[in-house]
# Entry
Amino acid sequence: MHATQQTPSNATQAQQPQAAAQKGARQPYSIELFLAYHRLAGDLQNENVPRGGAEASAARAAGNHPEVLALQELFGNNAALRRLFSLAVENLQLHAHREAIFFADKLVTLTDGHPLLVYLLGETYFANGDYKKVHSLFARYKVLNRNANFQVLAARALLRNKQYEQCLSVLDLPLEETTIFARLEATAHFLRGQCYESNENKAFAIQCYTDCLRKEPTHVEAFSRLVDSYLISGPEREQLLAALNFPSEDLWLKKYYAARVRDADVVPEPPGARPPLSSRRPANQATQMAEEKPIGTAIGDSSTVRADNLFETLSSRNNLDILCIKAKHAYARYDIDRAYELCLRAIREDPLCFEVIPIYCCCLLELNYLGELYYCAHNLVENYSGHPLPWFAVGAVSYTHLTLPTIYSV
# Structure
């Protein structure tokens, strides 16, 4: 057990009361969202923020925030500062992170550490992988707990740096501005969950991931952590799915989650029900069948895509995530030929689709396609030796009693 063990949800609720209960509280806003819209707009004029939708409303609320209004006035009266901002965000968009850091740093100096520009500099540090600098910068300017934007970015940086206890400490800081954008609050729960999971505190990790999904059902990564890591049982998955409140435009995601839950709970057929290898399709025939079905070669009619048929449309157009689910379903039913064919179709679209490669290796092992399995393992080790997945493939090859070159010795 670790030092930071207070109940995460209670701590969060105590430190971040609901905006509705606060008389005269400001509307919540997201700095990331505001800056993203204005990068696309090319300036800091609030009229250019796109109209309509919850995110646009949040962006307009950000435009009325005193900090943002002060920055607009500052840039409106000083062309040199406006030019520096333009260079900083342009380089950040182009992934020229060191260039973006250079110009953002000058902006922070010239504006005596304006909070939004300190955040922008922190964002450039994060993009460049300077995770420790993000926390140090925010601590130096005393903005770690200014609002949820600073808190979440600093926590993300500490998590990337594997400073789990310090990450939890930052997330537990009481915020000066207690209104919060829903997505940011969900992200804070998710970051807590990652810290607790890394500290092997399974119970708190489950609670945090669940709180994240209850706050924001579209947080797919939190759902993946619960399901893919088998943190919760089959009945608990069903209960979680039933408890999530999806808006009408996101109901397709509920179908996707349901497919993932069913996938995790399908029981394979017993060994006695397996068809003999002699009855299975030869590798070259299965490969030919997969290649005859084009994937993503034609642009479909997007006018037919609606919220109520989005999942079905993705399935019919062979979306990679859906193909992976189908392959896992087929393998769990011990329909190895079908699973192998689906894996091939996914790998044709993305040769490094890590989600499907474990099923692909298992299919190759079952079908006794050892040459193809060896090639897969060799290619993965050559390109991704630091990732655990290549060594799963190597283990599958070793299982066949092939003698591997010494380069594959772990």
In short: DSSP finds 22 helices and no strands in the chain. Confidence is low (pLDDT under 50) at residues 9-29, 39-52, 266-299, 402-410.
